[in-house]
Amino acid sequence: xxxxxxxxxxxxxxxxxxxxxxxxxxxxxxxxxxxxxxxxxxxxxxxxxxxxxxxxxxxxxxxxxxxxxxxxxxxxxxxxxxxxxxxxxxxxxxxxxxxxxxxxxxxxxxxxxxxxxxxxxxxxxxxxxxxxxxxx
Length: 136
What we know:
This protein is mainly beta. The protein has a single domain, classed as Jelly Rolls, CATH 2.60.120.10. The chain contains 1 helix and 10 strands, in the order ββββββββββα. The chain is globular, with a radius of gyration of 15 Å.
């Protein structure tokens, strides 16, 4: 989702500095906006959920660590429900089915770290996710 991160004089040539506002967002499911940044060995994903949004249950081989920045969200992890709010973290092992739904009427923002690097994301094809090496 990064077409041209630009130059960053404050960082070594092997680093990138990116602003979320500069990254393209897609909508993998209705009411959920997603931005993706891929490193060499991990993926960072920012999700913004509209009130009432639901991310269907799915599974992937990567471990997922999700930090809730704002709002309240309920996770269904392997059939068990847990509700998280700002400052709380969910650690979901690779291969475990999970989904999410907004709780209440506030928008929800999360940051998800996935390791190892993720090449395919829910809501897109494998070939699209590899185009340009930018996580799409």
